[in-house]
Structure formats: C-alpha cells, structure tokens
Write a structure and sequence with these properties.
The complex is a heterodimer of chains A (about 325) and B (about 350).
Chain A lengths: L2 H6 L12 H13 L2 H19 L36 H7 L2 H28 L1 H14 L4 H12 L3 H28 L2 H8 L4 H9 L4 H24 L11 H7 L9 H29 L1 H13 L6
Chain B lengths: L11 H5 L11 H29 L5 H6 L5 H11 L5 H13 L13 H36 L4 H15 L2 H14 L22 H30 L2 H9 L3 H9 L4 H26 L4 H10 L3 H29 L1 H4 L3
Classes of the chains: A mainly alpha (about 325), B mainly alpha (about 350).
Chain lengths: ~325, ~350
C-alpha cells in the first residue's frame, strides 16, 4: 500500500516539486496502480474498454438487421453465439457495437463536470465575497434536486439528444465537484506563496492558473476518478430509460431494457450487456477508490467516496 | 454533503463561524435552523421556478410539442389553456405556484384527472418501498459493519468488504435485472418479475411484489451504511476507553454494541440520510425495472408522454422532500455529536 506517498500529499504539506503539474499526475496514478485494488480496477476497466472499442472493428454480422426469430437461444435456428434479441437481431453484434458510445459520453460528461466544477470552486475560493456567496448558494440550489431528476428534467425539455445528455450529466455533477474543489482550494489560497504573488500584482487569472491550480492536481484527479465512475452509471441508467441512443442503434443500457421480456427464453440479451456494464462500473469504481485511498489516506477517502456518491445538499 | 466528521469546508455562513459578538448560549440547533430553513425554502422556490420555466417556456410552444402530429387548432387551444400558456409567463408562474401552495396541482394532460388524484396513491407506494428499504439496509449494514470491525482483516471482513465494494459500484438497474434473473425467471421462480398492481390495489396486500424491488435497493444502499459503521466502530475500538472496557473484562458483544456502536451514531445518521436522499432519485430506475407503480415510474412515463403538469409537480415534490431531509439529517447529526455543538 502506498502509505508513504499518501502522507506526502496531504494538502498542508509544502508543495514539493513532484506534487505539481505533470509529475503529480504520474504520481497519483502510480500510487493507485501499485495497490491490488487499483490493479484489479484497471484490469477490469481495460478489459471492457477493449471489448467496447475493438468490438466495432472486429468483423461481425449486422447489429440492426434481422438474423433469426426473436429470443432464439444461442445456436438455435441459425442464431449467433449469444442468440437473438427482442427483434431477432444478433445479440453478439449488438454487444460489440453498443459499448463505445456509452464510454465516450461518460468521459465527455466527466470532463465537462471537472472543468466547470473546478472553475467555479477555485474562483469562489480565491475571490471570496460576492462571487463566493453566489456560487456556493447556486450550488446549494442545484443540489436541492436529486441528480437523476435534474438530468431527466433537462432531457425532457429538449428531448433526448446526445450532446444534451453530456451537458445534463456534466452539469448535474458539477456542483459536487465545485464544492470539493472549493474546499481544497480554500486551503491553497491561504498559503503564503499564493498571497505573495497576489500582493506582487499578478492578475488573479494568472495566480489561479499558475499557482493555485497546480497544487490542486491531486484532489482533481481523485474527483475525476469518482465522477467518471458515477457518470458511467448515470449514463447507463439514462440509456436504460431510453434517453441515450436512438432505437435501431445498439447500446448496452438500451439492450437491457429491450430484452427484459425475453429473460425466460434468451437471457443473453440482458445478461451480456449487464455483465459488461457491471464490470465496467466495478472496474472504474475500484480504480477511483484506489486513487482516493493512495492519495487521501483511508479515512478521508472513505468520506470522499461516500460523499461523492450521495451528493446531497447538506454541508454537515 | 461533503465531509462526515472532518471540520466543515467553510461555506460563507459557516466560515463566518462564531462571530465575536455572538450571543452566548443561543442554541446551535436553533441557530442552524435559522439559516437552513430560509435557504431551504428559497431553494425549493428556485427549483419550482426553474422547473416551470424549463417545462413551459423553453421548448418554444409546449402545447404543440405535446400534441405533436395530432394538433388541431381546437385541441391546441385547449392544451394551451390547461398549461396556462395563453397568459403571460409571470402570470402563469404565479398562478401555478399559488395553486401549489393551495393544494391545486393542476390537471394531468394524459389522464385528464387532477394531478393529486393521479399521483397520490403512487406517493404512498413509493413511501412504503422507501421506508422498508431504509429500515432494512440500516439494520443489516449496522450489524454487518460491527461484526466486520470485530473480525477486522479476517475472512468475514474481507468477504463482506469486497462484496460491498462491488455492490456500491453496480448500477441499480443492473442489480435489478440480475435479481430478476436469479429470483424470478432464471434460477428460482420465487417472486414475480414485475410488480404491476391494479390502480385501486395497495402494494402491501401483495407483499411478494415488494420483495424484489426491496432486495434490489437494499443491495445498492446497504454497503454505504456498512462501510461507515465499520470505519466508525474500528476507530472507536482503538480508543482508550474501549481498551479499558476490554481489560475490565466486558464481553465482546457488549463492547461492540454498547461501547463502540454509539460512536457510529452520527456518521450512521448521515449515511441514513444520504441513502434516503439517494433513494429519492434511485427509485426512478428501480421502479422502471420492476414497473413498480410509484412516483419514479410516474416521472418516467410523464416525461415520455410529456405530461407537463405531472412532471412539474413531481420535481417540486422531490425537491421539497430532498431539502427537508437534508435539514433533518443535519439537525440529528448536530444533536448526536456534542463536540460539534461546542463553540469553536
């Protein structure tokens, strides 16, 4: 266990050379990958990523054309390795084609969350006063709605579009990130070197970018890991509700919904995408957990993980 | 919700903290309520306004997008009137919100009945689900957490901790279909796969339909309780007083449940609140998996059929529930940690 690096990354330790910028990214990921949990998580994630992104490249049948009677079992009536789905399409082809979109959307949503959350949080912490009050109270208001409900509301207004899905999921998580980064940034903004450059007359934007942000790499990476794991679950759930991919196209979440009625006949239509989604979310969660543990220490990571999953409006 | 026991990340109101001139002896709970309740009410009002504006105004004309192809001028006019689109935005907003306050929640476009009539029974179904899950997951999580703390790093702890790590990560609808696969259609045929019930029927008259949705949500929520209780109990067991109790010859169960567990009360309350908050959103997916007739399923079908009054009502109800629960949780946490109440 990387307990040594965990100690050296506590925010109140003076920032050493390798705690900032590029070196920090490598160190944070390295700390996670050295733990068993991190290795298992990374392994599972890579496995599913390989299936999702190599799947469309591997030669296979059509994912949208009729193949054999609906819910044929594997091998029966000329059906493929995993049988057919509710509309008689080949399950294996749909599994191979239906993963990448979820992952791409989740990654984009996570990036959006981190960028918006970090901007809001850092600005609020540095500028104080009116900006701080407005931002953090705005965060409170958005957090007064269950996340999924917030996303559903946004999607119901304009209709299910992919860019909107990314926007909605990204925005719905940004408040939590803002709150976490705000707390971490307050600490950094109080440090002497930050105050010193500010007194020197360096404009706030430069202070934040050059002097505050680099010290926040660790909490940002922890947060990004947790948010990615959560975005995957959220986006999979939305696509299960039919708000992700347009009907003929395959998507693991949609497949689970479409093929529920065939559980008694050809369960592969549900089981295959369910297992892949489960592996993916368990993998990303374990890796995110490993990052948090390696960098925050066990107790604080426990809190970070639990708090991030809940995302409530309270400030305790 | 950010930290559980660490000092709070100072939000302005907290950061201002104990102002020098603060009246001594003002009860901390009252003091907290004094700014949390107005903030909560404000949040709900904001959510209501946002919801109204989002559902009524943004998509151009809500009425024509609801009716779609079947829009005749007469029906369009009727729906526009029902939605209050024939009046200025602010008037409509005012009418809608004063209606909410007076218990008039509008009329469902799909069912042509008052929203309260459509949603009322479903609220009850969801509450039943929520209460059963909250109680079960708390009990199971607490007992498992204490026992795991006692056998720390032995096989029982390792097994349960790993299982909880997996269960936390699984999307709830995946758990739902796996549960169906195991207990309803695949391996065992013990329970119905869907929980459809006739509108007049009550869910508690057919408990077998409650089992699988409850099981799914218990699997999803228990790990949080378990992890928190385990961590808090381990911390307590390492304290001096636990050592004294042990040396004094207190039996293991008594040490665990009488001396260590009370320390887990504050975090447990927080996780309990968190779990119920999660459930407010989580029921949407799980109710959809099981076609369980609660407000989650109602929200999904209202969104699919663009039943605007129902959407507006449900979002506001969920927001009120959410805000209230947050405040209640924080009050209980404050009451259960005397340390927090002391002036800092």
């Amino acid at each position: 266990m990387a307990t040594v690096s965990a100690d050296s990354s506590l925010p109140d330790v003076a920032p050493a050379e390798d705690l900032r910028g590029q070196g920090a990214v490598r160190r944070v990921l390295g700390g996670a990958i050295r733990t068993r949990r991190g290795q298992i998580g990374a392994g599972l994630t890579l496995l599913v990523l390989a299936i999702a992104f190599l799947g469309p490249v591997i030669p296979h049948g059509s994912a949208t054309k009729f193949d054999a009677p609906p819910f044929s079992k594997p091998g029966n009536l000329g059906a493929g390795l995993l049988g057919t789905d509710a509309l008689g399409r080949d399950v294996l082809s749909r599994v191979l084609d239906g993963g990448w979109i979820l992952i791409v959307l989740a990654v984009l949503a996570t990036l959006l969350t981190i960028v918006i959350g970090a901007l809001l949080g850092i600005n609020a912490a540095y500028r104080r006063g009116f900006v701080e009050g407005l931002t953090m109270r705005g965060v409170d208001v958005v957090l007064a709605m269950p996340q999924l409900v917030f996303v559903l509301l946004m999607l119901s207004v304009i209709g299910p579009k992919r860019w909107l899905l990314v926007l909605a999921v990204g925005l719905s998580q940004a408040p939590q990130t803002a709150r976490v980064i705000y707390a971490a940034a307050q600490d950094v903004c109080e440090r002497d070197y930050v105050k010193a450059v500010a007194v020197w007359g360096v404009p706030p934007r430069t202070v934040l970018r050059r002097h505050v942000l680099p010290s926040l790499i660790t909490p940002l990476m922890v947060e990004a890991g947790l948010r990615l794991a959560f975005s995957i679950i959220l986006i999979a759930g939305l696509s299960f509700l039919g708000l992700g991919t347009r009907p003929p196209n395959p998507d693991w979440g949609v497949m689970i919904n479409e093929n529920r009625l065939g559980l008694g006949t050809n369960y592969w239509g549900v089981l295959a995408p369910a297992i892949l989604l489960a592996l993916l979310s368990v993998g990303t969660n374990m890796f995110a957990d490993a990052i948090a543990r390696a960098n925050l220490g066990e107790n604080r990571s426990e809190q970070a993980v639990i708090a991030s999953a809940g995302g409530t409006g309270s400030e305790a | 919700m950010s930290t559980l026991s660490a000092p709070e990340p100072a939000s302005p109101a907290v950061a201002a903290g104990p102002r020098p001139g603060r009246v001594r002896g003002a009860h901390p709970v009252r003091e907290m309520l004094a700014w949390r309740i107005p903030l909560g009410v404000l949040s709900v009002i904001f959510v209501a306004i946002l919801t109204y504006l989002a559902t009524q105004v943004l998509p151009g004309d809500a009425a024509s997008s609801i009716l779609g192809q079947s829009a005749t001028p007469e029906r369009l006019a009727l729906v526009r009137k029902q939605l209050g689109l024939d009046e200025p935005v602010l008037t409509g907003l005012w009418n809608w919100m004063s209606g909410l306050v007076q218990g008039d929640f509008g009329t469902s476009l799909v069912q042509a009945r008052p929203v309260s009539e459509v949603i009322g029974p479903r609220v009850l179904n969801s509450v039943v689900l929520l209460v059963v899950v909250a109680v079960l997951s708390t009990l199971i999580g607490a007992v498992a957490g204490v026992v795991a703390a006692h056998y720390r790093d032995r096989w029982f702890d390792d097994t349960i901790s790993t299982l909880s790590l997996v269960a936390i990560a699984l999307p709830e609808f995946v758990v739902g279909v796996l549960v169906i696969l195991v207990f309803a259609v695949g391996i065992f045929n013990w329970f119905p796969a869907v929980s459809l019930i006739p509108p007049q029927e009550r869910i508690w008259n057919d408990l077998s339909k409650l089992v699988l949705p409850v099981l799914t949500l218990v699997i999803v929520t228990t790990p949080y309780m378990f992890r928190m209780i385990r961590a808090a109990t381990i911390e307590a067991l390492q304290s001096d007083y636990a050592e004294v109790a042990e040396l004094k010859g207190v039996s293991a169960p008594r040490l665990l449940f009488r001396h260590a567990l009370p320390n887990a009360l504050a975090p447990a309350v927080q996780v309990f609140g968190l779990n119920v908050l999660y459930l407010a959103g989580g029921i949407v997916l799980v109710e959809t998996v099981f076609q369980y007739p609660g407000i989650g399923l109602a929200l999904v079908s209202a969104i699919q059929s663009r039943d605007v009054p129902v959407i507006q009502f449900l979002v506001v109800v969920l927001a009120i529930f959410y805000v209230m629960l947050n405040i209640v949780t924080d009050v209980i946490v404050l009451l259960s940690t005397p340390r927090r109440r002391a002036p800092r």
